[in-house]
Amino acid sequence: MITYLVKPGELTLKGGNRKSFENVLHRNLAVLLKGSGAQVSSRQGRFFVRCPEGMEGKAESALNRLIGITGWAKTVIAEKTREDVCAACVEEARLLWEKGIKTFKVEARRTDKSFPLDSYQI
Hints:
The protein has a four-stranded antiparallel sheet, with helices on one face. It is an alpha+beta fold. About 10% of the residues are buried. The protein is built from three helices and four strands. A hairpin with a 2-residue loop joins strand 2 and strand 3. The chain starts with a strand and ends in a 24-residue tail after the last helix. Helices cover about 35% and strands about 20% of the residues.
């Protein structure tokens, strides 16, 4: 499975109506992904799309057309340990290197404050 992180846009400004806007966004995303086998979930103000391998094109096309988000990113899932996070970064760098990409950037937002590294250390 491929996982995408979807960042909602103006939803953070809606206050008391936030849940209804999240529901509309969830429904619109589900409609765009219909037939792809993708699953949509949300947690802590973020949406996650899990789709089967081979359906990345359909998922990315849907995410590019979805109104109400500021962006999306393909993710790598790792256990919450320093070693696993570093191993995932090294593996991603290796895959990019094989494609001819020489540099990449890691951006982290640590919502779990019990993780031993802060965002800058990651």
